[in-house]
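Methods — Computational structure assignment.
A single polypeptide chain was analysed. Its primary sequence is given first, followed by the predicted tertiary structure written as structure tokens.
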Amino acid sequence: MPIKPFKDLSLVDDFMFSEVMRRPENIKPFLEALLEKKIESVVTIDKQKDLKDTYDAHGIRLDVYLEDEHQTKYDVEVQARLHRKLEKRIWYYTSGIDRHSLEMNTDYEELSDCFVIFICVEDYFGAGLAVYERESHIKGAPEIPYVDGSHAFILNTDFKAENGNPAVMDFLRYIRASYKGERYDISESSYLRQIDEAVSEIKEDSGREMEYMTIAMKMMDERKEAFEQGEARGRAEGERANQIKTIKRMLSRGMSLEDISDMIGLELEEVKKLAAQE
């Protein structure tokens, strides 16, 4: 897939979303409207934050990660295409954030609240809601909440029912219009005008364009390498399957394992292992 031109980026693209929403004046009003709570200050904020426990572990690259004055963690993601098993992805992100925020020898009670928010351009659950919020309670006793400090939201820009703050609804409409390449009237919203101006400002920054191209090229190389590794594994598995088939066919014709080893050029122990495969 070719790299999307920088001038064509919108808020639905990871890079642009990270650049715009990493600014406290942009992310803070959004979170306050969605969560209906006051955030006094944003203490730390990162874009495209990497969480990885070990070099070869499956890493997490967060779009926008921040903490408030109470050390509450927030991760906000934008999804231009629908992913399967989004619930497990949210669980994995939450656990990664918790592991990296809990210091050695710190009691689990010290874990801060964590909010993971996914903004999707398609309706993941198909119920037409704009805001899907996970609730946890005890089975058989729904009046008893299960409070572990983790919170999950999946927002749907393609909503039919407006079940959230009007400011959030406007924001989702703006993202949907950006995704479809349509214009959206932002004249009545000072917040959306602020967001739109940030997008335009970033597009005019040659330094940001170079950064985008560097990241895009790196990700393209990573995908290419992963594809080539997958192809290599597939070829190796296919070769192994053919060897097993050949060995079994030769055994069915009464040949000994020793003779087969000589004929196909494999060590006897390897031939025995392959012959035992189902």
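Note: The chain has eight helices and eight strands.
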